[in-house]
Description:
This protein is an alpha/beta fold.
Amino acid sequence: MGKASRIGVGMDYSATSKAALRWATENLIDNASDTLILIQVQPPNADHTRKHLFGDTGSPLVPLEEFREINYSKQYGLSRDPEVLDILDTVSKTKGAKVVAKVYWGDPREKLCDAVDHLKLDSLVIGSRGLGSIKRILLGSVSNHVVANASCPVTVVKGSQLSSKS
Length: 166
């Protein structure tokens, strides 16, 4: 209760990652001592201004106030999603939690596991696309890899609980 928690949420702006963000804010963020870190992984071939500066280590932690700005999205080549901003604003205002964002470039499976260690996360929450077993074998599952390799507890919010609008 009184211990500060560092909760990471993998965000790719899909319906399941938004559901994971909602789940984390409702179930893991308790108070102003908690920190919610939105972790975004861009493709390794993305060519954006900030990648040249922070390609190896990921971006600095960006506070919510800066994350809201349109320039942030442009500089990192990210989607600007009003629903995500609303969820983040709500948890910041109602629970007083500190909200920051970080961008990595590369394979999401590896970068999410790296983020757990770099950011010293107490927990990571990610969405699952709900791939069938054949697609999961062929494409590989980010959630399976992260659950098996992350050094902290990982919660996977399944896509089957949502409508199929991903």
